[in-house]
Amino acid sequence: QVQLVASGGGLVQAGASLRLSCAASGRTFSTYAMGWFRQAPGKEREFVARISWSGALTYYADSVKGRFTISRDNAENTVYLQMNKLKPEDTAVYSCAASSNRPSDSAYEYGYWGQGTQVTVSS
């Protein structure tokens, strides 16, 4: 099993940057694919980015491609989401998730979830 704790959210102006972190417990972190999802008020949860267990493969939602970067440090049991050029429409609760299956855009493939961290982008 793995437990996840997300952090790094905050209130920023449009155009600013934030880096989210997701710290994982457990010695098997490096065997999990990791993903970031977000949910804005009144909207369904949506996929943001994912990364393979080794970090070699990454994939992004079209809405964040070119602005967000997902990475991981398996030695530190942490996955990151660097968010640049933030827009008001990026405002949401961001959650990290771990999957023992192949990397996926579907939340159903992820069996472990962090508690979420709020990101608010003002215009």
Overview of the structural elements:
With 123 residues, this protein is mainly beta. The protein has strands at 4-7, 10-13, 18-24, 33-39, 46-51, 58-60, 68-73, 78-83, 92-99, 112-113, 117-122. Strands 2, 4, 5, 6, 9, 10 and 11 form a 7-stranded mixed β-sheet that branches. A 4-stranded antiparallel β-sheet has the order 1-3-8-7, with no helix packed on it. The model has no long low-confidence stretch (mean pLDDT 95).
- The stretches of 5 or more residues where confidence is low (pLDDT under 50) are none
Helix content: under 10%
The proportion of residues in beta strands is: over 45%
Radius of gyration: 13 Å
Order of helices and strands: EEEEEEEEEEE
**In this structure, how is the largest beta sheet organized?**
7 strands, mixed
Give me the secondary-structure category: mainly beta
Counting DSSP H or I runs of 4 or more residues, the number of helices is 0
Instruction: State the end-to-end CA separation.
Output: 40 Å
Outline, from the CA principal axes? globular
Q: What is the mean predicted local confidence, pLDDT?
A: 95
- The tally of beta strands, per DSSP, is 11
Could you give the topology of this structure?
Layout: E1 4-7, E2 10-13, E3 18-24, E4 33-39, E5 46-51, E6 58-60, E7 68-73, E8 78-83, E9 92-99, E10 112-113, E11 117-122
